[in-house]
From TrEMBL:
This is Tryptophan 7-halogenase. InterPro entries: FAD/NAD-bd_sf, Flavin-dep_Halogenase_NPB, Flavin_halogenase, Trp_halogen. Keywords: FAD, Flavoprotein, Nucleotide-binding. It comes from the Bacteria. The active site is at K77.
Length: 495
């Protein structure tokens, strides 16, 4: 049997280096890894907010957290603060934590909702440690990972950090522009990448990490694309970096505006800012004006203008090519899911790495699993636009009135009527994420699980007071986030 042992990574953005570093570290000399990238083309240059599974990814690769945070100027992240999504003036927080205490038969929201009926009007937020800590700008590592967190980081620096690791582990980096992709006349598989320099890079398995260009998976193999822009109509963004004007907080902000939203992501040394908008309802000049008039602090770079369309590559693995990163599809960064999808693709590929001939069963399994991840994330993002009382602009009226996928409609209506949410097939966003966002966007369930009524008012009151008290006492004992980051990374206090 001919062994599959030459892996070629096309592209060296976050996706390319996350893939190369993980494969080289996990498989060592069992495979050879080459990565081609072009400094002249560069990377997309955005992507700063992440979600908790990245912590596990880094641990899997044996990365020292403090070293990684120093290298990427990272801060800790406990969730996202959403401004103005429900009616233009509201705020809610989607945290990475759990809220209150679930019973096996019913989530805490049922007890909270029944409590509301009985006159206990304490906010649902008060029972979530990560949320209260974030809003108090506090953070610490707690024993047994009791505080669930992610990072806000400079993804360019992350790629650089991983590059050093990958090269140390034997990855060969080739600088140059891929001018042509050669296909095998018989199998239609990719045989080699031809560079401007004349060099040809042959391989058995090719990872397309060429970003929005999708040079291999689409350019050469025409894997097809599913368009989701009718559900996620934002199609443009402008990113800009500014100096920090305040100590970094452990959360990202997503501030809605009349045709999309803006992000604010505090790193150690600067702040990432950007505006996401729908070009049907806002032009580039208006978007830039809005961004520049709302950012704080001196700008550090020229604005970076980006165009995109929500959707996914129909086949993420096709023949001997796997799309990783933006080449596999894109959904706006509202819940910071792109780097996560890179991680999922890379780990999934390592699990399914062929020994010799590629099995079509592996390919089908990979594609099903990767697409399931993307569809679940898609539904979760669409939720933020669909469930809103905003009708103050054509953009929001479009979102409010649009038809949504049946899978999402079922989830929304089930929650609205019964307060129930179910996490299916290990989906990324668990029950508490759905509950926080659905309530934050304006749904109060009409009913609750009957088990909540088992508790007499007195006991219910004791339960609520005990849980909230535990959260507030824990938060009171936590250090300030900015000071903790500086201490942990051994750097002088950030601004
Ligand atoms: P790129 O960074 O574009 O890298 C492509 C690589 O391919 C480069 O090295 C380039 O040189 C190389 N290349 C291309 N063509 C050729 C060629 N012909 N020859 C040789 N090399 C070539 N994700 C998050 O998780 N969190 C966020 O907060 C977030 N925010 C985002 C905001 C915006 C506005 C956008 C658009 C994306 C955001 N993302 C975010 C997504 C994130 O930026 C990407 O998922 C991540 O950077 C990975 O990009 P990539 O490596 O696939 O592509």
């Amino acid at each position: 049997m001919k062994r599959l042992n030459r892996i070629v990574v096309a592209g060296g953005g976050t996706a390319g280096w996350m893939a190369a570093a993980a494969i080289a570290r996990t498989l060592g000399k069992a495979v050879s890894v080459s990565l081609v990238e072009s400094e002249a083309i560069g990377t997309v240059g955005v992507g700063e907010s992440t979600i908790p599974p990245l912590v596990a990814y880094n641990r899997l690769l044996g990365i020292n957290e403090a070293e990684f945070m120093r290298a990427t100027q990272a801060t800790f992240k406990l969730g996202i603060l959403f401004d103005g999504w429900r009616d233009g003036t509201d705020r809610y927080f989607h945290s990475f934590g759990l809220t209150g205490k679930d019973h096996w038969s019913a989530g805490f929201q049922h007890f909270w909702r029944y409590g509301l009926e009985r006159g206990f009007d304490r906010s649902y937020d008060d029972y979530c440690l990560e949320l209260v800590a974030a809003m108090s700008a506090k953070f610490a590592h707690l024993p047994d990972d009791r505080m669930n967190y992610a990072y806000q980081l400079d993804s360019g620096l992350y790629a650089k950090f991983l590059r050093a690791m990958a090269e140390k582990d034997g990855t060969r980096r080739v600088e140059g522009r891929i001018a042509r992709v050669e296909l095998d006349g018989e199998t239609g598989h990719i045989a080699a990448l031809h560079l401007d320099s004349g060099e040809a890079i042959e391989g058995d398995l090719f990872l397309d990490c060429t970003g929005f260009r999708a040079l291999l998976i689409e350019g050469a193999l025409h894997a097809g694309h599913d368009d989701w822009t009718h559900w996620l109509p934002c199609d443009a963004a402008i990113a800009i970096q500014t100096e920090s004007v305040a100590p970094p907080v452990p959360y990202t902000r997503a501030i809605a505006h009349e045709a999309g939203w803006q992000w604010r992501i505090p790193l150690q040394h600067r702040r990432g800012n950007g505006i996401v908008y729908c070009s049907r309802y806002m032009d580039k000049d208006a978007a830039l004006d809005r961004l520049l008039s709302t950012i704080e602090g001196k700008t550090l770079v020229e604005p970076n203008f980006l165009r995109f369309g929500a959707g996914a590559r129909r086949r993420q693995w096709h023949r001997n090519c796997i799309a990783v990163g933006l080449s596999g599809g894109f959904m706006e960064p509202l819940e910071s899911t792109s780097i996560h999808l890179i991680q999922r693709a890379v780990l999934r590929l390592i699990r399914m790495l062929p020994l010799g001939e590629i099995s079509e069963r592996d390919v089908a399994e990979f594609n099903d699993q990767q697409m399931a991840d993307m569809l679940q994330i898609r539904d979760f993002l669409v939720l933020h636009y669909k469930v809103t009382n905003r009708g103050d602009s054509p953009f929001w009226r479009y979102c409010r009135d649009m038809e949504v996928p049946d899978t999402l409609a079922q989830k929304i209506e089930l929650f609205r009527e019964t307060g129930r949410v179910f996490r299916r097939n290990e989906e990324l966003f668990a029950e508490n994420s759905w509950v926080q966002v659905m309530m934050g966007q304006g749904i109060t369930p009409a009913a609750w699980h009957p088990i909540a009524e088992k508790l007499p008012d007195e006991e219910l009151g004791r339960l609520f007071a005990g849980l909230a008290d535990q959260v507030s006492r824990t938060v009171a004992g936590l250090p300030e986030h900015a000071a903790y980051v500086a201490h942990y990374c051994g750097t002088p206090d950030s601004v």
